[in-house]
Amino acid sequence: MNVDVQTLIPLFVAVPLGMSLLVQLLARHRHVLAEVLTIITLLLLALMSCYSVGHSGIYHLGGWPTPVGIDMRLDALATLLLLAVNIVGLAVSLYSVDYMRRFTARSHFHSLFLLMVTGMNGVILAGDLFNLYVFLEVAAIASYSLVAFGCAHEELEASFKYIVLGSLSSALILTGVALVYGITGTLNLAYIAARIAETGRDTPLLLAFGLFICGFSFKAALVPFHAWLPDAHPAAPAPVSAMLSGVLIKAIGVYVLARLAFNVFGITDNELSLLRWLGLLSMVAGGLLATGQKDIKRLFAYSSISQVGFMVLGLGLGTPLGLVGGLYHLVNHAFFKSLLFLNAGSVEYATGTRKLKHLGGLNRQLPVTAATSLVGSMSIAGIPPFSGFWSKLIIVLACIESGYYGFATAAVLVSIVTLAYQLKVQRMAFFSALPETLKGLRREPPMMAVAMILLALGCIALSFAVLTGLREPWLISAAQQILTAGIFGD
Amino acid sequence: MIYSLCLLLILIGLYGVVVSRQTLKIVISLLIMNHGVHLLLLLIGYREAGSPPIVDPSISIAEFAAGAVDPLPQALVLTSIVIGLGVLALMVALCVRLYERYGTFDVTEIRRLRG
């Protein structure tokens, strides 16, 4: 079968968007149909993103040529993100079949979930600044309502916090968009980049770039802007937490930051050092705060902040090796963090609690959860030969290569902290003695087990990416070349 | 000059978000801030004594382009207002649900999450 990849590009947005409406029309009260439709959609999207590996192209919406119409562009970096979003999405849609049985109005969950995927795919493929903003809002609105899905005290409170800070950051981003349009007279990313390359960056553009850095750091939950994440991510139902922590903060945060910084605005040394310090701060603060947590999902949420710090540190080095490390860690984190959140969900599903001190000895009771969470923990803690080890190794090596020994030391120390809090989870939840209250638990339902095994296999498969060389891991190196190529060509 | 009024509106909104204790007041402040940004966008496309951006066949395209208001920011603002409406509806719904659960609009009393 030979499909032109050009025709696939709009489908990444159109298919989930159409399906989310179809679910409401056809399957509002037929939960099984809603589940089947969601899984088929995500399966299709995952296959499409696998197919688009190695391809690139620009799709002109409605056939209008570039300066007039709207562009969507697919390149190696976008493909990498699409793979992460849609494969994690597939696992999450499988998982939610069993997990979401406790909730009413499940068809709404499936619609919102598909809308969130639409938004993320749209952001990744957007070729102009305003569409990027629109899709970002689509993903954000869906995630606000998904965080509040349970409608209990904590969930509403977390969602309100999230929506206020999210709207604030969106307003900053929109101001940036307005400034960029006012100065360059165009919204197309490639044209803005060409204009900046031609005439340099005047002060208002610098202000716009600053607004984008603040706005997208909010979305990526870098440390001074992180206050919403530790509330919002644990409050959501587990499949949603997995999507939020696993891919949302990257697709609408780190990815856009990298895209704008390297391909559009052309980042300078001062700005790179800003990114490095933001990364360092998130890495250290997130890691230290995670160690003290008693709630398993809250611990993972703080750990997400810390791991995003690693990615931004890698990107902030600006060298090819640093970018490879940052992007590799981004994909790895998408898989192991969503896996860990699904594990936490499975523990909560079986035991009804997320408090670590009430758990224990679950490796006999929930064998699949225990085994996959071991894979996830070892990956995130950076135990060789798991994937997290390679990406962290590359980031540390890149720091040393650029002569930043302090950053390298901090990265190594934070990985040790990561190991410490992951061991805490493993010991307190899975390996200690089984409390009386938890005897005779039922095993995890089959679909949940399948989803966790799928993600664990993904984690293991990612560690093989490094076989093609530490400097040019498979898939990631192509994405890195897009970033180092600097400003977009036509 | 007129741009600084937009900035003022944005800052009033920001001040309201930071200082207000009532959830609904925070929502209103966000709305003010958002509309400050919308006005900024509109002003960027504005041209003093410009003609409406509707092509008039009696004048040449170049002449028309030199005299007309830029229509693109207007389209952007319309889109953004619709998005803002969606977010606003969701925020107000959240406020109502929060009131049902906690019996208050006061954010200092809505704090079960910590740590």
Architecture overview:
The complex is a heterodimer of chains A (490) and B (115). With 490 residues, chain A is mainly α. Helices cover 75% and strands 2% of the residues of chain A. Chain A has helices at 5-26, 31-51, 76-99, 106-125, 129-147, 153-184, 189-199, 203-220, 229-235, 238-264, 269-291, 296-317, 320-351, 362-365, 367-381, 387-401, 405-431, 446-463, 476-484; strands at 57-60, 71-74. Chain A has a two-stranded antiparallel ribbon with strand order 1-2. The mean pLDDT of chain A is 90. In chain B, helix 1 runs antiparallel to helix 2 (23-45). Chain B has one domain (2-102): Helix Hairpins. Chain B contains four helices and no strands. Chain B is 69% helix and 0% strand. The model of chain B has no long low-confidence stretch (mean pLDDT 88). Chain A binds chain B through residues 130, 133-134, 137, 141, 144-145, 148, 151-154, 156-161, 163-164, 167-168, 170-171, 174-175, 177-178, 181-182, 187, 230-231, 235, 292-295, 298, and chain B through 10, 13-14, 17, 23, 26, 30, 33-34, 37, 40-41, 44, 72-73, 76, 79-80, 83, 86-87, 90-91, 94-95, 97-98, 101-102, 110-113, 115.
Topology:
The complex is a heterodimer of chains A (490) and B (115).
Chain A: H1 5-26, H2 31-51, E1 57-60, E2 71-74, H3 76-99, H4 106-125, H5 129-147, H6 153-184, H7 189-199, H8 203-220, H9 229-235, H10 238-264, H11 269-291, H12 296-317, H13 320-351, H14 362-365, H15 367-381, H16 387-401, H17 405-431, H18 446-463, H19 476-484
Antiparallel strand pairs in A: 1-2
Chain B: H1 2-19, H2 23-45, H3 61-67, H4 72-102
Helix pairs in contact in B: 1-2, 2-4
